[in-house]
Amino acid sequence: MFFFKLIIIFSARVFTIICLQAIAYFVVAFSSTIAMSLAGVVITSLGCGLGEITFLALTAHFHKSAIGGWSSGTGGAGLIGSFSYAFLTEPKMGDLSPKVALLIQLFIPVLFFAAYFIVLVIPDTVYRPSLPPTTWLVPKNYDEFIQKDRKEGDPILSKVPQREITFKEKIFLIKPLLHLMIPLSTVYVGEYLINQGTTQLIFFKCSKSFGLSKNSQYRWYQVLYQFGVFISRSSIKFIELPTLVLYMLPVLQLLNMTFFILEARYWFVPHIAIIFAMIVFEGLFGGSSYVNTFHKIHKMVAPDVREYSLSAASLGDTLGVNIAAFLAIILHNGICNSWKRYDDYIYS
């Protein structure tokens, strides 16, 4: 999608994202079959993917601090979303059904609409259409046209126009980003193998899990993971990691993944508190890799191709998530097949 998205206006992309969000809530809330639930997950993922490349590209029209704001916001969204769902469905707290909990959160697409179309001050460098459908695609060299209309000394002159890029140039522009995209992708492979392939298989008796049920344990795993992501994605305002550390994060995340695989297979951890701590570290590694990667790309690429480069670089984490999703099926089934000897423990 990032190869042709530059011609689609931001407002259309954002409106599509909002619609996908709302549809996904309804589909999952009223799901009665596995196929319907999976369809809701696909719709959600489509909205998230479109949202990432859209808003990363939009940051090219703002000060570089927008990357930190975007990353912190996504981390906060994950934390608030996971915590609110865990709180609403936890028997000792909200004690609501998953259906009711999801429908309550339908205010989020409305909030999203207001944030973009009412609250956000859109820079002049972002093309805005009028009513006729012929204006709904970004005209060629739009940035150059509006740049010529500005007066000397106007702050908008500091915004460099985004030039037209051929398909061949788009491929070529990805090559200098690979030294950052590959480590990011590897971190996400480890991260989502943990989330999708092991944590569902790690649970404890009530006496070793603060009295949490099996389902509650998994929900709070997600809350703590998102807490780690939020803290690390917000860290760019205070500390910027050197590139060498970004190369070390995949190693640390893969070691973390190995720990979770062994725990899912052998259950050697005595208490859930240790798992909680390790999950926070998982989120810290992933969030740090994400925000520092895009921050460095924002600084290193030429300003006139920044919008494309930022959205194209998102292929790194997306590819990592997809690789992990397929591998997680094999990993999950393999661990489950080795569990026969532990039946007495599972059902005790």
UniProtKB/TrEMBL annotation:
It is found in: Endomembrane system; Lysosome membrane. InterPro entries: Battenin_disease_Cln3, Battenin_disease_Cln3_subgr, MFS_trans_sf. The keyword Coiled coil does not apply. It comes from the Eukaryota. GO terms for cellular component: endomembrane system; lysosomal membrane. Pfam families: CLN3 (PF02487). Keywords: Lysosome, Membrane, Transmembrane, Transmembrane helix. The chain crosses the membrane at residues 7-28, 34-58, 70-88, 100-122, 241-262, 268-291. It is a multi-pass membrane protein. Belongs to the battenin family. PANTHER family: BATTENIN. This is Battenin.
